[in-house]
Amino acid sequence: MPRKSFWNDCLQQLEGELSSNHFNTWISPLQAEKDRNKLSLLAPNRFVKDWVEAHYLDRITEIASSVGKQDFVVNPVSYTHLTLPTTLYSWGGGGGG
Question: Global pTM?
């Protein structure tokens, strides 16, 4: 099963179980990387990562194992440090005026 399809199948099941507010706030921002029976959930910040880990990790693991037809290990991680802007901005400089 392709990686994208795997996570989309998991998302579809979660969307059916959660309120749209909870799904859009906590699950929709996640990106996933699948490697065999390991699923890394990339959260946009540590707060989302911690919330997902505390409230949804067990259910996501159950769904991933069901969709993938094998036991999965799910690891939420924050990718904030990986998404720094590539453009440097000047916040002012010397000189008056």
Answer: 0.76
